[in-house]
Amino acid sequence: MFNKILVPIDGSKLAECTFGHLEEIASGCKVKEIILLTVLEVIAPPFMEVETQYQIDEMIRLQESDEKKTREKAENYLSGAVNYLKTQGVTARSVLIKTDVMQSTPEVILNYAEKNNVDLIIISTHGRSGISRWAFGSVADRLVRASITPVLTVTPKGCRVVATAALP
Fold this sequence. Notes:
Layout: E1 4-8, H1 13-16, H2 19-29, E2 33-40, H3 53-87, E3 93-98, H4 105-115, E4 120-124, H5 130-136, H6 139-146, E5 151-154
Parallel strand pairs: 1-2, 1-4, 2-3, 4-5
Helix pairs in contact: 4-6
């Protein structure tokens, strides 16, 4: 049923909570390809007044240095995730995509899934609702609402934000 599964991960422990579900589905469905995807968002340099070409060059150098460190950290994380899944009997490969200024993370994930004929997207979620979901946004929520590919959302036990009313 599922030949290709996409698992967006962002370096958080929460994102890795999907791995148990992934292992079960991969085994049960004899999945042929699993892709771990990390999206690097473009970080706009801080707006500041510059007076010399040296200052401009220095800003560019710092920006490039920061981007290189972020990319290396993401590559190491993905490599570790692939190796962990391998110890669990699951073969996966990793993909790292850098957004451009006009793209959001959900758009990158959806475009990748569509262009690569992904059969299922598995993503973790905090389980926020109401005002907190609005305030913090949700990549998972945007995927569920916009994807033509089935999306399995996983809210790990103990991670769901539960609203409680004060009792009189």
